[in-house]
TrEMBL record:
Entry similarity comment: Belongs to the AB hydrolase superfamily. MetX family.
Pfam (any one): MetW
Pathways involved: Amino-acid biosynthesis; L-methionine biosynthesis via de novo pathway; O-acetyl-L-homoserine from L-homoserine: step 1/1
Oligomeric and partner information: Homodimer.
Ranges of biased composition (kind: Polar residues): 7-18, 148-165
Name of protein: Homoserine O-acetyltransferase
Keyword Acyltransferase: yes
Region of interest called Disordered, as start-end residue ranges on this chain: 1-21, 136-168
Gene name per UniProt: metXA
Originating species: Rhodopirellula sallentina SM41
Length: 648
């Protein structure tokens, strides 16, 4: 028997996006401001008058240094979070609020509706502004903006230098860009007395705005947080947008874009565009989890669209609901602006784009996001890394797809990374080396192994350090703590999500990267020292990684377990079993992460073959807490080796 549920709740699951529960309810906390100065648009033309709708949370401090700009995605608006318990839900309630990562007790949070939108900021549904003495021809269409328009809540009277015609812009609204949106936001910042943002944060299209801000105004913010975004859209993503716009523009009720004031709007085309968009926001896994259990039991809702399967009911519901709160012309305008966005398709171009930026960066992607795939975030990270900008990057493991940035459980995963970046001192210096000396969010005691203590002793004060496979960041934290007051650049590379978070919470930059792919993000001689601690045996491309370490670093330090250690030999001889001992050897043969089984003698031979010099070396029997001298047969008696190497 088919289900008969018709409410939003019937479609909600653990993986539901906050966007699914948005409504056309009035934005009761919205404020508006008019800007009299015409806005010259990047692709030609101008808008004579601009109205900007925005919402704020928290209090701006005396020197306006605690302001955070939040930028929304295509279907979002200024209502990013609840203002009180009685307020309607916001699309980022899990991130914005008292005590949350974007803490409204600490920060003054500003979220404007974008230019071209339909929730209060100037867009296609607004009346044209014309000179007072101009005659508007064929102005039979009355002002009937979408019911969700918040123009009636304007806190600033409409300007009188020009008058509004009776004809909305409609499809004649000029083509705008992400840069034009940012320019309106810059005017809003000036109006609010904000000279520099503490942070600019955004996901998807909001991430595009954040990246556009820092590329256009390099000193505009202390921190840029770009989530589930890209330097430009893939051709596949462009294709989906083209189909969506065609669905709208070929709707019989589109009427050339001038459907305002009529009783027929292109709701069918807009609903189909939204349905298509929903599919791109989800991953295969998310769709299976959401719809497969009852795929043949659609929820019966009033709809003209096919509902043979449960996913059909869901898409019909979301598509139809979207038409009550969004304008078709705005969808066309915003999706086109997104498609035109292009910061660069090569690392060199992206390096040119971000070269002058003075902020630090947090870049977050999601493993199952095929609309804005992690590879596009890595393009940004690789460019920033090559420029030696402060950047932390995490690829969050999730089945939720692109929607993950709006899903509560995924917010709980990436939220601490946002919190770490924002909760650091607002006095953090802009110099990338000095910035690494700030007090970490996690100041728990650091516990080093004897091998790590040796590595620490081998690194001179002030040296820049890249730690490959940095774990929880304890070694980098120890280097920083030992050299407080000495400017130095510290960075980690890690692949385990929990370790990335732990390292970031220590206030140390870390990027999510698989060492088996080499170190293409880094340039030659970028660091004084590159460390590979207790990881040599776990990589598949040993020679290639050593070559990369010696390219990126002036020196390299490697530590590794010695598989010729006597206790291991005895296992083979006396027990006839795969060797096992404490530390890096403590695994069964079938679950060990160790791909290689190096000995000290083997590594010596390899380094000679590679024409690499050993500057220093030290050996330990960690199980006995005993240093093994070079003349005491370390290949037999040491279980751990530490070597400082370089290529002449």
């Amino acid at each position: 028997m088919h289900g008969m549920a018709t409410t939003d709740e019937s479609f909600n699951t653990e993986n539901s996006s906050t966007d699914d529960i948005r409504s056309d309810a009035p934005l009761v906390h919205a404020k508006t401001v008019w800007f009299d100065e015409p806005l010259s648009l990047e692709r030609g033309g101008e808008l004579p008058k601009i109205r900007c709708c925005y919402e704020t949370w928290g209090t701006l401090n005396e020197d306006a240094s605690n302001a955070v700009l939040v930028c929304h995605a295509v279907s979002g608006d200024s209502h990013a979070a609840r203002h009180d318990a009685d307020d309607q839900p916001g699309w980022w309630d899990g991130l914005i609020g008292p005590g949350l990562p974007i803490d409204t007790d600490r920060f003054f949070v500003v979220c404007p509706n974008v230019l071209g939108g339909c929730r209060g900021t100037t867009g296609p549904g607004d009346l044209r502004w014309v000179p007072e003495d101009a005659q508007v021809q064929d102005a039979q269409v009355q002002d009937d903006r979408p019911s969700n328009s918040d123009a009636s809540q304007d806190s600033t009277a409409q300007p009188n230098a020009q008058t509004a015609s009776e004809l909305p812009y409609g499809a004649d609204f000029p083509r705008i860009t992400i840069g034009d949106m940012v320019e309106v936001q810059r005017r809003l910042a000036d109006y609010l007395g904000i000279r520099k943002w503490r942070a600019i944060v955004g996901g998807s299209l909001g991430g595009h705005q954040a990246l556009q801000w820092v590329s256009r105004y390099p000193d505009c913010t202390q921190t840029c947080v770009a989530i589930a975004t890209s330097p430009r859209l893939t051709s596949q993503a462009l294709g989906f947008d083209v189909i969506a716009r065609n669905a709208i523009q070929t709707d019989p009720h589109f009427q050339g874009g001038q459907y305002y004031g009529t009783n027929q709007r292109p709701d069918t085309g807009l609903a189909i565009a939204r349905m298509l968009g929903h599919i791109t926001y989800l991953s295969v896994e998310a769709m299976e989890a959401k719809f497969d259990p009852d795929r043949h039991d659609p929820r019966q809702i009033a709809s003209q669209f096919e509902q043979r399967f449960s996913i059909g009911s869901y898409l019909a519901h979301q598509g139809q609901k979207f038409t009550t709160r969004f304008d078709a012309n705005s969808y066309i305008t915003l999706s086109m602006a997104m498609d035109l966005f292009d910061l660069g398709g090569t690392r060199l171009k992206l390096m040119e784009t971000f070269d002058e930026c003075t902020c630090d960066f947090l870049v977050i992607s999601f493993s199952s996001d095929w609309l804005f795939p992690p590879s596009q975030s890595r393009e940004i990270v690789n460019a920033l890394t090559a420029l030696d900008k402060r950047v932390t990057y995490a690829e969050i493991t999730t089945d939720a797809g692109h929607d993950a940035f709006l899903i509560a459980k995924d917010m709980a995963t990436y939220g601490p990374l946002v919190q770490e970046r924002l909760w650091q001192s607002s006095e953090k210096p802009q110099d990338t080396a000095a910035a690494a000396q700030q007090t970490p969010a996690d100041d728990s005691p650091v516990h080093l192994t004897v091998a790590e203590e040796s590595i620490l002793d081998f690194i001179p004060a002030g040296n820049s350090v890249l730690d490959l496979g940095c774990g929880t960041g304890e070694l980098l934290a120890a280097i920083r703590d030992r050299n407080l007051g000495t400017p130095m650049r510290l960075m980690g590379v890690e692949v385990a999500q929990e370790n990335i978070l732990a390292t970031a919470m220590r206030g140390i930059d870390v990027i999510d990267y698989d060492l088996n792919n080499g170190l293409p993000a880094f340039i030659d001689n970028q660091f004084d020292v590159v460390v590979l601690n207790a990881t040599l045996q776990a990589v598949k491309n040993v020679v290639e990684l050593l070559e990369e370490m010696l390219r990126v670093g002036k020196r390299a330090i490697i530590s590794f377990p010695n598989f010729a250690y006597k206790a291991l030999r005895e296992d083979y001889v006396t027990r006839g079993r795969s060797p096992r001992a404490a530390g890096e050897f403590d695994f069964d043969w079938h679950n060990t992460p160790n791909r290689r089984f190096p000995t000290i003698a083997d590594v010596h031979d390899l380094l000679v073959e590679m024409n690499v010099d050993i500057d220093k070396e030290i050996y330990w029997d960690v199980s006995q807490s005993r240093h093994i001298a070079a003349d005491d047969d370390p290949n037999l008696n040491a279980d751990t080796a530490v070597m400082v190497i370089h290529r002449s």
